[in-house]
Amino acid sequence: MHPIPEAALTLISSEALTPYSGMIPGLIAGHYAFKDCHIDLMKLCQWAGIRFVCSEVHAINPCDKQVYCDQHPPLRYDFLSINVGSQPALHQIQGAAAHGHPVKPIKRFFQDWRHWFESIHRLSYSPRIVVIGGGAAGIEILLAMHYAMHRTISMQSNFTLVCADQQVLNSHNKQVQDFFDHHLQSLGIAIIHGKRVVSINERQIMLNDLTLLNYDFAVWCIHAAAPPWLRESGIQCDEKGFVRVDQYLRSISHPDIFATGDAASFVPVPLPKAGVYAVRQGPVLVRNIAALLENQPLSPYRPQRHYLSIITAGDRYAVASRGSFFAKGKWVWYWKNMIDRSFMARFNPKLPGGSQ
Ligand SMILES: Cc1cc2nc3c(=O)[nH]c(=O)nc-3n(C[C@H](O)[C@H](O)[C@H](O)COP(=O)(O)OP(=O)(O)OC[C@H]3O[C@@H](n4cnc5c(N)ncnc54)[C@H](O)[C@@H]3O)c2cc1C
Q: What are the φ/ψ torsions at residue 140 (nearest 5 degrees)?
């Protein structure tokens, strides 16, 4: 909307239709259509006069200032911004790279779920679904799958949540935790607290106390990991492999590289991996790239201390959580729906000639 004069901008993304994670539980539950929760990057770039490269980056050489993509010649940059997000950290769990479905990349997860969901009527027994990870994403995905299963095909199923902490939603207030504890139990969903998955094969999950769980569909919603090529590129990263950035969102080792969102490790203060930070960093990133090109001083990014989370409960019902604030009800879901839909509308520009 505010082009930087004489700057040629290129967006590289592995997907042309990029998902908005906040609406994905609603897509699984059937409240949204696919196009409601995906941004058409090709169209957005066409509208903004930006070159779009649909390819997966697998390496960066910060000395030669080159980005290496799959099936595409290397791309040279003067300034680079890394915003590749995160994925569940599966590397320390035996068998996890081959079994179960990581919630990210969302595209693959959604395809796997749809495929499995459409085939379960062939099963002669109640399917067993295990979600690993008791944070907001795990709970929302579990409740959305449960809702889809019970309301659309009214099939008997067994759901289990494995949560490494003693309590679900560890970073939320007690009222939020109690609500979801009771809600999950009232739906007959088993919760295993304080246990970690140590290995998985094609049929069974093993916990750290050697308990075995049989499963038909398992979902990984555990803590986030960075793509390994970030550290391998020689850019300074934290112990988990995320790019260490200063108060200006600039790499502490390479001043011509920025990083934001889940891919960044904000050195001034640790931040949770949440979309609200990624979104709020956007305007600061734009300002700072423009300032660098124009030899102007950079602006610091000042993260908020608390942020509002709205956690959906499968049906059109949700819980709001911010610090010690707690609210629940259908109205909370409709409130989130309004926030999400108006957020998505900002990325659906009208192209000249009236085509949408
Ligand atoms: C089910 C679920 C629900 C969530 N709900 C919320 C919520 O309600 N509120 C909230 O604050 N947070 C929520 N989160 C967390 C949120 O998804 C992340 O914090 C947020 O998406 C981070 O934004 P990002 O731009 O850094 O990364 P992402 O949104 O993950 O975007 C990364 C982009 O980079 C692309 N990409 C990745 N790797 C490459 C590569 N190698 N080459 C090229 N392109 C690449 C991807 O295709 C994607 O388009 C949720 C997460 C999940 C899983």
A: -65, -45
Q: Which residues line ligand 1 (CB under 6 A)?
A: 12-15, 18, 21-22, 24-25, 56-57, 83-85, 103-104, 137, 140-141, 227, 261-263, 273-276, 278
pLDDT in tens, 258-317: 999 999 999 999 999 999 999 999 999 999 999 999 899 999 999 998 899 999 999 999
- The domains located in the chain, with CATH, are 10-86+226-307 (3.50.50.60), 101-224 (3.50.50.60)
Q: What is the distance between the alpha carbons of residues 229 and 232, in angstroms, rounded to a whole number?
A: 5
Closest-CA residue to 348 (of 22, 35, 13, 50): 35
Q: Whose Cα sits closest to atom 27 in ligand 1?
A: 85
Give CA torsion, residues 234, 93, 278, 135, to 10 deg.
-160
Put simply, whether the predicted model's pTM sits higher than 0.90 gets the answer yes
For residue 156, the SS3 value is coil
Q: Are 311 and 324 in contact (CB under 8 A)?
A: no
Which residue's alpha carbon is at the smallest distance from atom 22 of ligand 1?
A: 275
